[in-house]
Design goal:
Length: about 240
C-alpha cells in the first residue's frame, strides 16, 4: 500500500469509529429520558424482578389447590411436595378435604414428602378414607414423618376393619418410622404372621435402618425358624 492509499484508509477507519460512537451516543440520549421517568427501572433491575421468589411460586401453587379443575389441583399438590414446601402445609391439610380421591391421594403423598408433624392429625383421619388408595397414601406419609405420634397413629390403624393390602401398607409404614415402640409391636406379629406379612415387617425394619429396627432384624436372622431366617436374609439383601 502506497502512502496516499494508507492515508485514505486511515481516514475511512476514523469515520467508521466516529460514526459508531455517534450512533451509540444518540441511542443513550434517546433512552435516558425513559429510564429517568418516575417508576422506571433499569434493564438489570427488570431482569432481577422477573425472577420469581420461592415464596411467590409456593403461593401460586397454593392458590391452584383450589382450582376448579381437579387435574390442576393434583398437579399443584404434586409440585408442592416436590418442593418440600413447609409453608404450604396448612393449605395441603385443607386440601385433604378435596372431593376427588386422586387429589386427596396426591396431597397425602406430598405431606409425606414434606414430613411436617403438623400434618399428623389429618393424615391419621385419612387412614379411614373410603378410598383405599388415599388411606394407603396417608399411611406412607405417616411413616415418613417418623415421630412417636405418627407411629402411635399407625399402631391404631392396625385395628381398623380394612383389607390385607391396607394392613400391609400400615405395617410397612409403621416399621419405616423406626420408633422403638413400633418395632416392638411389629416384632410381636412375626410368630403369627403369614409369609407375606412377615416379609413386609422385616422389609420395613430394613427400610427404617434405625438401631431398634436393625436389632430386630438381626434377631429374626438368628431365629430357629428357617423361614423367618430366610425372610430376614432377603430383607437385608434388599436393603
Amino acid at each position: 500500500m502506497d502512502a496516499r492509499s494508507q492515508i485514505r484508509w486511515e481516514k475511512s477507519r476514523r469515520w467508521v469509529v466516529f460514526g459508531g460512537a455517534l450512533v451509540g451516543f444518540m441511542t443513550v440520549l434517546a433512552v435516558a429520558p425513559i429510564l429517568a421517568a418516575p417508576g422506571a427501572s433499569s434493564p438489570a433491575t427488570v431482569a432481577v424482578q422477573a425472577q420469581p421468589t420461592e415464596a411467590a411460586i409456593v403461593g401460586a401453587l397454593q392458590g391452584l389447590l383450589a382450582d376448579s379443575v381437579a387435574s390442576v389441583r393434583l398437579a399443584a399438590a404434586d409440585a408442592l411436595g416436590d418442593r418440600a414446601a413447609t409453608a404450604a402445609v396448612p393449605a395441603l391439610v385443607a386440601a385433604m378435604a378435596d372431593t376427588r380421591s386422586q387429589v386427596r391421594e396426591e396431597v397425602a403423598e406430598s405431606l409425606g414428602q414434606i414430613a411436617d408433624p403438623a400434618a399428623i392429625p389429618v393424615l391419621a383421619q385419612a387412614l379411614s378414607d373410603q378410598s383405599r388408595s388415599v388411606a394407603e397414601a396417608a399411611a406412607r406419609a405417616l411413616g415418613r414423618i417418623r415421630t412417636a405420634d405418627s407411629a402411635a397413629r399407625l399402631e391404631d390403624a392396625l385395628l381398623l376393619p380394612r383389607d390385607e393390602r391396607f394392613r400391609q401398607a400400615v405395617i410397612r409404614a409403621l416399621g419405616a418410622t423406626g420408633q422403638a415402640s413400633a418395632v416392638e409391636v411389629l416384632e410381636g406379629f412375626l410368630p403369627l404372621a403369614d409369609r407375606r406379612l412377615r416379609e413386609s415387617i422385616l422389609e420395613s425394619f430394613a427400610d427404617a435402618g434405625t438401631g431398634p429396627a436393625l436389632a430386630a432384624l438381626l434377631r429374626a436372622a438368628a431365629s430357629p425358624d428357617a423361614s423367618l431366617r430366610l425372610s430376614a436374609a432377603q430383607a437385608l439383601a434388599g436393603n
